[in-house]
Amino acid sequence: MSNKVAIVTGSNKGIGLSIVKGLCKRFKGIVYLTSRDETRGRTAVAELNKLGLHPKYHQFDVTDRESVIKFRNHIQEQYGEIDILINNAAIFRETGCYNSYEENKQIVEINYKSILTIQELIFPLVRNNGRILNISSDCGHLSNIKNKYWIDRLSNKNLTLTNINEFVDWFLESCKNGTFKKEHIADNGTVAAYRVAKVALSAATIVQQRELESRNISVNSMHPGLVRTGMTLGVGFYSADEAAETPLYIVLDAPENLKGSYIWYDRRVLDWYDYNADYYFQIETLNK
Predict the structure, then answer these.
(1) 10 Å Cβ neighbour count for 171?
(2) What is the pLDDT of residue 1?
(3) When you count CB atoms within 10 A of the terminal residue's CB, does the N or C end of the chain come out lower?
(4) Angstrom distance (rounded) from CA 275 to CA 144
(5) What is the model's pTM?
């Protein structure tokens, strides 16, 4: 019997680190803590070692194709397959509600486009019946989009990655050429790039589930809640350890038929397509 393997991207701090901690306690197999910065990653492992937890470490920059290939090759050589993949690596530019084109591009690269590289290179290693979880956000619900054309395109049941990529490219192009309108995005267009990237990620989850259905792999996305981490500048209603409970439930305990879903931090499965709902993120929650 080969070793079971779980991988968490961007897991040297915050919710990712708490998920690794929970997996080390409950998952009967090998857990990988990964990070873009090797020093920070190894420091995080050392901290967990003090708690008697022993994840393995590997450098893994989700935006660097060579890094992804290197990690893929390592896992393939050591174990052949993986059982759990949690795509947690993300960035939230808190410098302001509106960002420059370059900043928007970087936010989209890290929060969405990196998943396409992982899908291409890492998904094939996921064992039949395995579980993939994409950490999204309340910014990832379709209600964050107010542009009728893109609501219709994204809520099409025959949605493809091409459609999603065109949506992302439309946004970036409109930022570049000055045609972006704040009313196209909820909450007067605040943190627009983050919303666009996370909506794209949640939408991609649905497509990925369709493609992996024949192998009985479950792919879900979730909003972990407003968590007190460095990413939210310490604003939030619960700790990273508390926030890790639902992701751990999804990959370890959830029934097999939980697939292709958008899940709220309290385990509720929400209708991702309900664009009239008020599940979208409101910037004022950061100021409360």
Answers:
(1) 25
(2) 46
(3) N
(4) 8
(5) 0.95
